[in-house]
Design a protein that fits this description.
Distance between the termini: 44 Å
Strand order of the largest sheet: 3-4-5-6
Largest sheet: 4 strands, antiparallel
Order of helices and strands: HEHEHEEEEHEHHEE
Oligomer: single chain
Helix content: 40-55%
Radius of gyration: 16 Å
Structural class: alpha+beta
Number of helices: 6
Length: about 180
C-alpha cells in the first residue's frame, strides 16, 4: 500500500522503483489525491489498483484479497511444470518469465498485463467484454472503475504494437471491449 504524498520520495516514484524490481509485486495506491490524471498516472506506472481517501476498510480488504489472488496466480506460473509458452502468430507468452516474446525480443509484463494478455490469448479473434476482463483479472468482487482495463490495455499496446495508435493485434471492439486479432481480416 502506497500513499502518493510521502516525505522524501513520493508514492509515484516508490511505485516505479518497486515495479522495476518486481513485475509480480502487488501495489495498491491509497491516497487522498482524487484527480483522474493522478489515478491514470498511478496505474500507468505500475500500480495494480488505486483507492482514494476516505475509503471503506471493508472495500480495502476486498481489494487486497483480490490482489492477493492475482499474486498467487503468478506463483503458480513460477512452478517448474509451467514452462510451455503459449503462442499466437509471432507472439509467445512465457509464463515462467512473465513475458511476451515477439520474434527475438522479450518484453516483461506486469502481473495485470500478463493476465489480461493471457485471457485474450485464450480467446483469439473473439470479442471480449471489458467486464469479463475485469472479472477474470481483478476478480468478480472488484468495485473499482472499469477504466483500469483501458489504462492497462493502453500500456500493453505501447509494449506490443509497432504503432500503438493503429493496433493490429490488440484491437478495441467499440461498445464491447477488446479482441486479440490474429489475422488482417
Amino acid at each position: 500500500l502506497l500513499d502518493i504524498s510521502m516525505p522524501g520520495m513520493d508514492g509515484f516514484e516508490v511505485c516505479k522503483q518497486l515495479r522495476n524490481r518486481s513485475q509480480s509485486l502487488g501495489i495498491i495506491m491509497l491516497t487522498a489525491r482524487t484527480m483522474e490524471n493522478d489515478k491514470i498516472s498511478g496505474l500507468s506506472i505500475g500500480a495494480d489498483d488505486y483507492i482514494t481517501k476516505p475509503f471503506s476498510p471493508t472495500e480495502l480488504i476486498a481489494r487486497v484479497d483480490s490482489l492477493y489472488r492475482r499474486v498467487s496466480t503468478v506463483r503458480k506460473y513460477s512452478e517448474p511444470y509451467k514452462t510451455d509458452d503459449a503462442a499466437l502468430g509471432e507472439f509467445r507468452l512465457n509464463p515462467r518469465k512473465h513475458a511476451v516474446i515477439k520474434g527475438n525480443t522479450s518484453t516483461e509484463l506486469t502481473q495485470v498485463e500478463y493476465e489480461m494478455l493471457e485471457y485474450l490469448f485464450q480467446r483469439p479473434d473473439t470479442k471480449v467484454k471489458r467486464s469479463d476482463i475485469l472479472d477474470a483479472v481483478w476478480g468478480k468482487n472488484y468495485e473499482g472503475d472499469e477504466k483500469v482495463v483501458d489504462v492497462n490495455m493502453r500500456r500493453l499496446r505501447m509494449k506490443l504494437e509497432d504503432d500503438p495508435s493503429e493496433p493490429k493485434h490488440l484491437v478495441t471492439v467499440w461498445g464491447v471491449g477488446y479482441m486479440w486479432k490474429t489475422s488482417d481480416q
